[in-house]
What we know:
The complex is a heterodimer.
Chain A: H1 2-21, H2 23-78, H3 81-86, H4 92-120, H5 128-151, H6 155-170, H7 192-203, H8 211-235
Chain B: E1 7-16, E2 19-29, E3 34-38, H1 45-52, E4 60-65, E5 68-69, H2 74-80, E6 81-84, H3 96-106, H4 111-124, H5 140-154, E7 158-162, H6 170-185, E8 189-194, H7 197-203, E9 206-211, E10 214-219, H8 221-226, E11 232-237, E12 248-252, E13 255-260, H9 266-272, E14 275-280, H10 283-290
Parallel strand pairs in B: 3-8, 3-9, 6-7, 7-8
Antiparallel strand pairs in B: 1-2, 1-4, 4-5, 9-10, 11-13, 11-14, 12-13
Helix pairs in contact in B: 3-4, 3-5, 4-5, 5-6
Amino acid sequence: xxxxxxxxxxxxxxxxxxxxxxxxxxxxxxxxxxxxxxxxxxxxxxxxxxxxxxxxxxxxxxxxxxxxxxxxxxxxxxxxxxxxxxxxxxxxxxxxxxxxxxxxxxxxxxxxxxxxxxxxxxxxxxxxxxxxxxxxxxxxxxxxxxxxxxxxxxxxxxxxxxxxxxxxxxxxxxxxxxxxxxxxxxxxxxxxxxxxxxxxxxxxxxxxxxxxxxxxxxxxxxxxxxxxxxxxxxxxxxxxx
Amino acid sequence: xxxxxxxxxxxxxxxxxxxxxxxxxxxxxxxxxxxxxxxxxxxxxxxxxxxxxxxxxxxxxxxxxxxxxxxxxxxxxxxxxxxxxxxxxxxxxxxxxxxxxxxxxxxxxxxxxxxxxxxxxxxxxxxxxxxxxxxxxxxxxxxxxxxxxxxxxxxxxxxxxxxxxxxxxxxxxxxxxxxxxxxxxxxxxxxxxxxxxxxxxxxxxxxxxxxxxxxxxxxxxxxxxxxxxxxxxxxxxxxxxxxxxxxxxxxxxxxxxxxxxxxxxxxxxxxxxxxxxxxxxxxxxxxxxxxxxxxxxxx
Lengths: 241, 299
């Protein structure tokens, strides 16, 4: 319960207040996926628009975890806020989830627009399978983001690392394209974005995947979200060894 | 030893590669005591604080805070400590009220209690009038007071203030001093690291002097001052004819400090040079005599 409370307080501080005072963060979180969406729509018409929406939805959610690297590093190295919280009964898991939740708050307007357009195009993403994929993706990316952030030793790396990770997670995985374009579609489940992409693309009828691949994607995503949580709890450096 | 003391360290050490930032540190501090930690840059003050606040693992030895081992019982330690880390700043887009309130909520206080304490603390630190201004727009002194107000409001058993007054003006500094006195009055044990010797002398019940990661001495400030030879200090800058009966002499660049039993006559001062100050010995002289030579960025 304390974990949830800590996460909500951090999300209020770092998400809600930040978003209300600085709309630029809200815009910033939507710029890249919207750019892809526009290009895909221009070249692919309605079909391209659908792929752009699905890919953008996954990208935006994954970037919640990845972009917390900047905040977490700034709070640890820049203003020593994390040190202040280490010397207090604050849960590192709650803190990390709160940071990820903050990014989710920035992304909410974008996700709402995406959702509205998807529903208008007949893409019903609010299915249990798709929701599972999105939730697991969010957990996995938050775990990866916070764990990596805790190892960064200089502030300047906190700005560049998310860009590299975003490219790997969203272009290197079948997020904007079907997994069948890869040498083996099973390569698509290696990263959580790809595994979520496979499940959601199938659930929305963008592409038909076999049962084995879907099962592999679901299992991989479960393992990745558990691994993300594990690394967050065990490996992330609340305390310097 | 680990039951009666609020803070207890036994042969505590921390190594970074081959470099020992802290080594063989052993001391105890009781409840309601203000422990001033003095030492030059790189003496190990912040390393000690980071170990005691459970942020940093020790490489050797052991330490306990409020009876809890900082390694094995870190979660219990965190419930009873609060800290203002060195060079920390409040989050700039929050208001002082939001910062203090959120910190108290994160410590587990109810919303009602957190609001009450946030108001009290902001009033105490002269921040209530600016409670709704973003921290970004406040002066450096006010920003630092926001941090200390948050920790003050937490009412923790053990409070760590790591160089809390560095860069503060005389007014803000005294507000911080008041808070240390108030925390002590409430029964908190306060660990105060500082470069300002007069601050340590004014606030501390006990002073721990560190140098090169090791304990040089630990005693009440007046006891440390007693160890300084003579009664007076004659500081001479410029041409120097020397004082015959000095018990000890310290050279700092072009400045020379003579430790003497009696203040020299004015004729002698005139002979010494153009800029001469005669004063009573203080804790600063103890630091100059014991760690002064090492005090030049020894890490």
